[in-house]
Design a protein that fits this description.
The chain has 230 residues and is an alpha+beta fold. The chain has two helices and ten strands, in the order αβαβββββββββ.
């Protein structure tokens, strides 16, 4: 898993450098484009979707997520996302899942909009980016029963308690940020998340991964952001 994590990190770094060189070449051709200083402040954000998950999912899942997004030259936006999440779900045959844990994401967004000289400068951005995420969780699966296809019959209920696990994934994101009033920022992101590692049949997996969602090789996610720019 560590090799996969390193490979993804290197891939994102190479992509970042490639995009940076391409943008730099475009800037040289566009003399009307403003050359901003490197550091343009940072934004503290709250993703309200995890807070609403308990209502949306009828009490199945819950969570909290805060972000810090840095603004470099109004073009590059490194971001750190930290959250907590969990789920309590009764599955098929009265099998019960309960799990929770912390998660972290790190990545970078790129502005797809150009701000030119002679126009009003706005803190509004159309963004596309990448993330690497990891979750450290503890979960239990109770009343698990299964049918023996060889000997026949159903095995008695089995309990798996206090299982600890770490999961990694990558995300491709797209979204917007809009300044609605004097440094108050709102916006949204859509994410396509892909779990690292194979999901083999017959193995025991958590129903829910904090920060990722229901366990699957690929899922979609949505974030709605409220923030303040410093």
């Amino acid at each position: 898993m560590s090799k996969i994590y390193l490979y993804i990190t290197l891939l994102i770094s190479i992509l970042f450098l490639g995009i940076s060189e391409r943008l730099s070449a475009q800037e040289k051709k566009d003399t009307t484009k403003i050359d901003f200083p490197l550091y343009q402040g940072f934004t503290v954000e709250l993703n309200i979707v995890p807070l609403a998950e308990k209502i949306i999912s009828n009490g199945v899942s819950y969570g909290f997520q805060g972000n810090v997004q840095f603004n470099l030259k109004k073009k590059y936006f490194p971001v750190i996302e930290i959250g907590y999440g969990g789920a309590d779900k009764t599955l098929l045959n009265q099998t019960k899942f309960s799990g929770k844990g912390m998660y972290e994401k790190i990545g970078v967004d790129f502005s797809l909009m150009k701000q030119k000289a002679g126009t009003k400068l706005l803190n509004n951005f159309l963004l596309a980016g990448l993330r690497i995420g990891s979750a450290q969780m503890n979960y239990s699966i109770n009343n698990l029963s299964f049918t023996d296809n060889y000997w026949g019959g159903t095995n008695p209920d089995i309990d798996y308690n206090s299982i600890t696990n770490t999961k990694f994934w990558v995300e491709v994101t797209g979204g917007i940020r809009v300044e609605i009033y004097k440094n108050i920022i709102m916006g949204w992101n859509v994410q396509n998340k892909r779990l690292l590692g194979n999901l083999s049949s017959g193995n025991l997996y958590p129903y829910y991964i904090p920060g990722y969602g229901k366990t699957s090789s690929s899922v979609w996610g949505f974030s709605y952001i409220i923030g303040y720019k410093f």
